[in-house]
Predict the 3D structure of the following.
Amino acid sequence: MPPDTVRIARGTIHPDPRDSQRWQYRSDWTASSAIDEEEEEEKQEERKKKKKKKKEDHLFEYAIIGKGMFGSAAAKYLADHSDSILLIGSDEPQDLRLHKGVFGSYYDSGRITRILDTEYVWALAAKRSIDRYRQIENDGGESFFHPVGCLRVMPDAINRRQYIAANEAIGDRLQATYERLSDDDLNRRWRYLRFPKNSLAIFETKNAGWIDPRKLVKAQQQIAAAKTDKGSHPCVQIIGETVVGKNILADGSIELKTDKANRFNAKRILVTAGGFANFNGLIERRLNLMPRAETTLRAEISQECAVNLKEMPCLIWFFDDHPNLHYVYIVPPVQYPDGRWYLKVGGDREAEHLFTCLAELETWFHSDGGAEAASDFRGILESLIPDMEALSWVSKPCVITDTATDRPYIGAIDENVFVAVGGCGAAAKSSDEFGRLAALCVRGEQDLSYGADAFHVLYEGEEDSGTRRQFHF
Ligand SMILES: Cc1cc2nc3c(=O)[nH]c(=O)nc-3n(C[C@H](O)[C@H](O)[C@H](O)COP(=O)(O)OP(=O)(O)OC[C@H]3O[C@@H](n4cnc5c(N)ncnc54)[C@H](O)[C@@H]3O)c2cc1C
């Protein structure tokens, strides 16, 4: 810097008052030199900013682990508030038997949906989701909702009448549409179905039926993927990898390691890994989650038979005298991705079959499910629809993730770690709402219409009998 100028502040030049000509010249020289310097500093600043931004591009604001039913919905909702979301999860394997690692509980084409329930929290979550199905179909470009109705049939007994009354009371609060039916009504209405004498029934006629969970997940991801920031960059990056470990870094952010040896960093993570949440080091302290086996049996039927059964509703059928089952659920004919038509039946046959480690889960998913369960289900389906001729029978394994509260756990488990897990075998229908609640939670908000503590988290060893019930219906 020339001796006759003093920079007292950036961009301010003080001339030597003894020589105005020199000043003129020098001041020009000095000023231009100062401008160069300034420009250089600005450039440096700009470079620093870019570098920081580049680094921040890899530091997601939120990472959601598990892109199944809860995670995909949560990503959609979070994308309304952030342009920096990673949705990372395993894709559905082409062949379950060859797959190693984690699996999802939505690998199917039919899940029952209904509002009626004996618990207000479940009914409200279902209603809110069902009310949004058509919008999700529209925005996500997938048709997944088939409102064929949901029929519940049971032996006539005092406790069953109380059960129906409890469903009706909650249904009335939420404006569900239903009818009570006698066994005569049942036989008149669905001549091809055979129920025992003295059956009681409640039929939810509107806004109930079945959804295709794969298509719902796809729709949610398509909606999430289409959300962009002001510069038209996608808000959500969707990656098909399994998270196999995590580190909490000194600044509180979290580094995720994947099975493809990639690393992703996020300020906050939401674990939506279903029955696999306690594995792969996703969370520090194990949750009180009980992943258990569920077998489903599918009867393949001809297209003609599917047409004949097209008015068939979803069915939940309770028994008092079956040696192995308290209930079964039946999804009416659905065309699966292989182009064939199937009727599906499942029930609580494997309720005691719990898993404690990844290897046990993997072995189960590599199997055909339980042979005894499949045999029971087949007998029930054949007695229910004696005229049905099955072309083949297919049994499949699946996993239900029960919680100690009989509700999903949605909450914070660490400073920057959140969970939304535990569908209890009944959360496909309400997954949009559970995803919304999870998105609220990671943003530090809560929907109090369920009560302040409705989805509290319990860790291994902790129990809560207050919300436990026998069936999720
Ligand atoms: C046989 C069966 C029948 C059912 N019937 C009904 C029904 O009729 N109606 C109903 O409402 N509900 C039903 N359910 C329940 C419903 O399917 C589940 O509640 C729902 O799928 C739970 O969603 P989720 O997102 O918690 O878990 P999932 O849908 O299982 O998604 C979890 C995802 O996380 C991924 N993941 C796990 N670990 C990792 C990891 N480390 N890294 C990355 N990704 C990971 C998994 O691969 C999966 O994609 C049924 C479930 C089963 C098994």
In short: The two ends are 82 Å apart (CA to CA).
